[in-house]
Hints:
The complex is a heterodimer.
Chain A: E1 4-8, H1 9-23, E2 27-31, H2 47-51, E3 56-58, H3 63-75, E4 79-86, H4 87-90, H5 94-101, H6 104-107, E5 117-122, H7 137-140, E6 147-149, H8 154-166, E7 171-176, E8 183-187, E9 199-202, E10 207-211, H9 216-228, E11 233-237, E12 240-242, H10 246-256, E13 259-266, H11 271-283, E14 292-296, H12 305-311, H13 315-327
Helix pairs in contact in A: 1-8, 3-5, 9-13, 10-11
Chain B: H1 7-34, H2 49-56, E1 64-68, H3 72-78, H4 82-89, E2 113-117, H5 123-137, E3 143-148, H6 155-166, E4 171-177, E5 180-181, E6 184-185, H7 186-189, H8 195-200, E7 206-210, H9 214-229, E8 235-240, H10 258-265, H11 269-276, H12 281-304
Parallel strand pairs in B: 1-2, 1-3, 3-4, 4-8, 7-8
Antiparallel strand pairs in B: 5-6
Amino acid sequence: MNAVLKTTYREAVRAALREALLRDERVFLMGEDVGRYGGCFAVSLGLLEEFGPERIRDTPLSESAFVGAGIGAAMNGMRPIVEIMTVNFSLLALDQILNNAATLLHMSGGQVPVPLVVRMTTGAGRQLAAQHSHSLEGWYAHIPGLRILAPATLEDARGMLWTALQDPDPVLIFEHGSLYNVAGELPADTGAVGIDRAAVRRAGGDVSLITYGGTLAKALDAAGELSGDGIEAEVIDLRSLRPLDDATVIDSVRRTHRAVVVDEGWRSGSLSAEITTRIVEQAFYDLDAPIERVCTAEVPIPYARHLEEAAIPQVADIVDAVHRVVGAGG
Amino acid sequence: MTHTRDPVGEHRRELLRQMLRIRRFEEKCAELYSAAEIRGFLHLYIGEEAVAVGALQALTEEDNVVSTYREHGHALARGVPASSIMAEMYGRATGCSRGRGGSMHLFDVGRRFYGGNAIVAGGLPIALGLALADRLRGDRRVTACFFGDGAAAEGEFHECLNLAALWRLPVLFSCENNLYAMGTALAVEHKETDLAVRAATYEIPSWPVDGMDVVAVEEAARHAAEAVREGGGPHFLELRTYRFRAHSMYDPDRYRDKAEIEAWKRHDPIDGLARRENVTRDELELIEKEVAAEISEAIEFAEAAPLEPVADLTRFVHSERTGAG
């Protein structure tokens, strides 16, 4: 009998952190307000009390210094988990992430692996305006040497961290801020998950909805609505944004012949552009209609609720896009 | 005439030999650059040799070193073979970074030499992390972190001095103040030009050192490294020095007075030590011969070295997994 656990995304991440700290003494957590405050989003609440200040390290507001310190500690035998409050703040550490974490192994001819895990929140939807709401994971997915993960489910929130810690190279995990309160059930013995493959979250034969992270739930809602109209959408959760699991995406598109990419990032020069291009490169003759993209409007995310809602992908936008794709072509 | 050699004299002759090695190696690099054997950026350390040679005396093989893009001197003084450095500059497979780094990115992890970093101040956070890992494990290592005066204008410098002091990390900050951030003089970009004073505001013991005097550098570094190793937290040395050559091979050096350069050359760390130690012409010639032989061998090694196959272009973007897993 497999017992079932009621949990939330936040608790799942916390359980993953706790497990990692218990399993491997080389693991420590470092970042702004991860200790006494309990984590900006209360993810690490209670960990300082359990593991002490050497392993749950509050840092000054010095993103470059503490991300870089994570890199150095990883180079020197530790398995640090660095938390950055939001992806916008990570730009203050971009030098360390790109010029060091992603680069050192190659630049040193294979001598300097950096087994570092960086976690950060991403995404809009909480009226936090233009300096706390962007989805820049697509930028990071541009960089060779990094692995980029986007856990969208409780199972992935619980299981991706441990797998990431086994990786000899830097892994960035993007947790969408709207997911922390999502509640659900997990098997009590849930554990590490694979991070190499995308997952088909809903099977369907009429159109492929390709998404990840914070927009997965919206894509699933849209698929439910479309089902009422007689359109069965297949929903693919990319899970890993670098490397991309082309095979799962292409396999789906070859069966549905139609694709809509849903991405909370901006459209221009983006992850959605990359996915679209790969479909065109690998499955052009399988397509029955032009590919559609549902992305964030090309504006900094605004504060006012109605403006923010208008800026980011919504269920209705996805439904409309699917109708256009299904209505088009042969 | 024979000398009775005292250990101090012996040691100082070794310092002289190491500085000459760096000087002659780099003079050869400049020649090879002109001959188009070495490409990319080439930043010479000539004039600053006393800093690397003196400071690295204070470290053991177990200690860590983080360096900058002007790091030939640090690498040589740390014991990275001249041949593997030269092969790296030739872009060869047997170079210390397998031809992927070049002059600015020399690595030798076996000697805990964690590289030339070409982002000014970019190595400081790494040094903190190396030191933090040692501290968490209880290893009594020192991490020596070299950087220039230019780094003091970067945010990372201030973030790292604060964090290292706050956590009492075993870092020896070794600031090579050669008075110019590329072509910008210290006084043109800083209100407070006394960098040791800047470090002291973070409650880090810090003091200026005559970086043209290898004996003074060694003494200061030994004192500071000992304190760091004993748990005294980070220490900061402002090593006042000067580069005799331009910033890089591209630099026409329009921003410095010829008279200023000449004045500093009168403090040449190699000539100065040889004079003070009464090193004879014969002794010097012997060292020169030995150094020349080492450099010739390094060049021969580099010239004969294979190129990395283009098929291996994307190796080391990710670690190569071993075993069945």
